[in-house]
Amino acid sequence: MIVGVGVDVVEIERFMATLGRAPRLREKLFTAVERDLAPSSLAARFAAKEAIAKALGAPGDLLWHDVTIPRVVGRPPVIEMTGTVAARAAELGAVRFHLSLSHDGGIATAMVVAEG
């Protein structure tokens, strides 16, 4: 059973300009595993975090660091959740997540399906 679906799109150049204007924002949004990725990968992970929140009903109490999208070469992307995000997933009965990331033409996109 599908518990929720989330999609988000990020303009890479605009996103990176925002990070450049607010250097602490990178630390607020991303875990240590994610922070030093290429701009397109960073924007895709931000889109993924937004899409995950949307799939979980977008409650306002989710913490950015409670989701990590590590880089896994040669395999589909994975979602690692802890704390507030894991608790919300459990509350909704979401036990499996499907994530698709893409970036092309200056745009990063993420789609998430939460399955119960």
UniProtKB/TrEMBL annotation:
Known cofactor(s): Mg(2+)
Enzyme class, UniProt record, top EC level: transferase
UniProt EC number: 2.7.8.7
GO MF annotation terms: holo-[acyl-carrier-protein] synthase activity; magnesium ion binding
Catalytic reaction annotation: apo-[ACP] + CoA = holo-[ACP] + adenosine 3',5'-bisphosphate + H(+)
Keywords of the record: Cytoplasm, Fatty acid biosynthesis, Fatty acid metabolism, Lipid biosynthesis, Lipid metabolism, Magnesium, Metal-binding, Transferase
InterPro entries associated with the record: 4-PPantetheinyl_Trfase_dom (IPR008278), 4-PPantetheinyl_Trfase_dom_sf (IPR037143), ACPS (IPR002582), Ppantetheine-prot_Trfase_dom (IPR004568)
GO biological process: fatty acid biosynthetic process
Binding sites annotated in the UniProt record for Mg(2+): D8, E50
One cellular component (GO) term of this entry: cytoplasm
Localisation: Cytoplasm
Domain spans labelled 4'-phosphopantetheinyl transferase: 4-92
Pfam families listed in its UniProt record: ACPS
Principal localisation: cytoplasm
Keyword presence, Heme: no
Function recorded in the entry: Transfers the 4'-phosphopantetheine moiety from coenzyme A to a Ser of acyl-carrier-protein.
Similarity section: Belongs to the P-Pant transferase superfamily. AcpS family.
Protein's name according to its UniProt entry: Holo-[acyl-carrier-protein] synthase
Source organism: Sanguibacter antarcticus
Gene responsible for this protein: acpS
